[in-house]
Design a protein that fits this description.
The chain is mainly alpha-helical and about 375 residues long. Helix content is about 60%, strand content about 5%. This is Integral membrane protein.
Length: about 375
């Protein structure tokens, strides 16, 4: 009887060693969403440094989020190689990997929380730039406070859930001594964080509807901008999907049954960064469509008028122009002109240049003494053959 049990035990160990499906799932999902988020950040940096030539605080915060997301991904991939997504019987054959897998899990959750909070902060900074309503601004400030608060609480509980701290990954060792907080408490904190993160994502995903809806622009452009700015709702979906798996924190097969948390945490972080970067990529579409000549001729701090100019800029002056004025015209000298003329008056340097890659959706009526002034006039050509 004892020999039969020993054979069954060895067979179970070998089955656990061979069952790497969950570990592979962690690696694949982590790699995919790391690639997507990294690509979106690189495109964002290209737009902000080469196309619009304006690099702001929202870009810096997003770069920090991407750096931490990279660290999170490394922990996930390396942790999966050590045993994340594996049953306890796997560590009978590889006992040294147990502590390494737990350490990677612990570090990964720390990087995950900070990554998601920073991504939300970056998106909110971008939205605050186009907000004119005080109510909308207060909503965004409340969202950034909520995201930071619940993230900080979850971060501190994750770091200090065991005393001493290293006991979390040494708890499988008979020579290590320490205590950890009740798992139900940790689960409650995880639920609190998940709900707070979902509310924040929904807020920054739906608020753009209110920000853009009353602006004077055609419906197609309006819905396009709302769609791009509202991509934050996608990240909230990953948070919501992750919530039912939080209970696995107290599972005996911790590394095996928390693989869904690892997967959806990577999805949430990757989508959050990608959503925040897509809102800045509209100038890239125009850059690729119209060529790079316009952006090369523009100087840092110049107006991002690429949405209104289809074929680049040409500065022209006529005897009827006022001194110091320039007109933006996209045709050739022999082309017949009709439509709207934009006349810019003032100095050659714009005061207080914006660091936004989005067009100014909130034009101010105030004009600094040495600033720019934009006037619009209409010239219509009449052709005899019409």
């Amino acid at each position: 009887m004892q020999a039969t049990e020993e054979v069954a035990y060895k067979a179970a160990v070998q089955a656990a060693v061979q069952d790497d499906s969950r570990s592979k799932a962690i690696i694949v999902v982590t790699a995919v969403f790391l690639g997507i988020s990294l690509g979106s950040v690189l495109l964002r940096c290209f737009v902000r440094t080469r196309v619009v030539r304006a690099f702001g605080w929202d870009d810096i915060v997003m770069l920090l989020a991407m750096a931490l997301n990279l660290a999170f991904a490394i922990c996930g991939i390396q942790g999966a190689k050590y045993g994340m997504g594996r049953k306890l019987l796997y560590f009978v054959e590889y006992p040294d990997n147990f502590e390494r897998a737990l350490l990677c899990w612990w570090l990964g959750q720390i990087f995950y929380v900070i990554t998601c909070v920073l991504a939300k902060v970056s998106i909110i900074i971008t939205l605050l730039r186009i907000t004119v309503s005080r109510l909308h601004a207060w909503i965004l400030y409340a969202a950034i406070t909520l995201a930071t608060a619940v993230g900080l609480v979850f971060l501190l509980f994750t770091i200090f859930q065991c005393s001493p701290v290293p006991y979390f990954w040494h708890q499988g060792s008979t020579s290590s001594h320490g205590t950890c907080v009740n798992k139900d408490t940790l689960i409650a904190i995880a639920y609190l964080y998940s709900v707070g993160a979902a509310v924040t994502d929904l807020t920054i995903g739906l608020l753009p509807v209110a920000l853009i809806w009353n602006l004077r622009m055609n419906q197609r452009t309006k819905f396009a901008i709302i769609g791009v700015l509202g991509i934050g709702c996608i990240a909230s979906a990953a948070v919501i999907v992750r919530i039912p798996f939080v209970h696995s924190y107290k599972d005996t097969e911790f590394l095996y049954n928390t693989y869904q948390i690892s997967i959806w945490s990577n999805v949430e972080a990757g989508l959050g960064i990608t959503a925040g970067c897509l809102t800045t990529l509209r100038p890239l579409i125009r850059f690729l469509r119209d060529g790079s000549s316009a952006s090369r001729n523009r100087t840092p701090g110049s107006f991002p008028l690429s949405s209104n100019v289809a074929q680049g800029y040409r500065l022209s002056r006529s005897k009827h122009d006022r001194p110091g004025s320039h007109q933006l015209w996209t045709g050739s000298e022999n082309d017949e002109y009709h439509g709207v003329t934009t006349t810019i008056l003032g100095s050659s340097h714009r005061p207080n240049p914006t660091s936004s890659s989005e067009e100014d959706l909130n034009p101010k009526n105030e004009l600094p003494p040495s600033g720019w002034k934009v006037e619009r006039s209409v010239r219509v050509s009449v052709r005899d053959d019409l």
